[in-house]
Design brief:
elongated; mainly alpha
C-alpha cells in the first residue's frame, strides 16, 4: 500500500475513528482551538465616511504614484 492510499483512507474516516487510530499509533493530537468571533461594532455615519474616504484616497494615491507610472 502506498502512503497516498493510506492518507486518503484516513481522511475518509469519521473523527471518532481518526481519534481511535491516533490512539493506537500513539499520536497525540491537540484539538483545534475555535476562534471566538468579536461582536459586531456599530459605526457612526461620520466614522463610516471617514473610513471610506481614507480607503479611496489610499487607492488613488497607489494608482497614481510615481512608482506605478510607466515611462514610454
Amino acid at each position: 500500500m502506498k502512503a497516498e492510499t493510506a492518507y486518503n483512507v484516513i481522511q475518509a474516516l469519521p473523527e471518532t475513528e481518526k481519534q481511535r487510530l491516533y490512539n493506537m499509533l500513539g499520536i497525540i493530537k491537540k484539538p483545534k482551538a475555535v476562534k471566538k468571533k468579536e461582536d459586531a461594532k456599530f459605526l457612526t455615519l461620520e466614522q463610516c465616511t471617514e473610513m471610506i474616504l481614507k480607503q479611496l484616497t489610499e487607492r488613488r494615491n497607489k494608482k497614481y504614484s510615481i512608482e506605478s507610472m510607466k515611462v514610454v
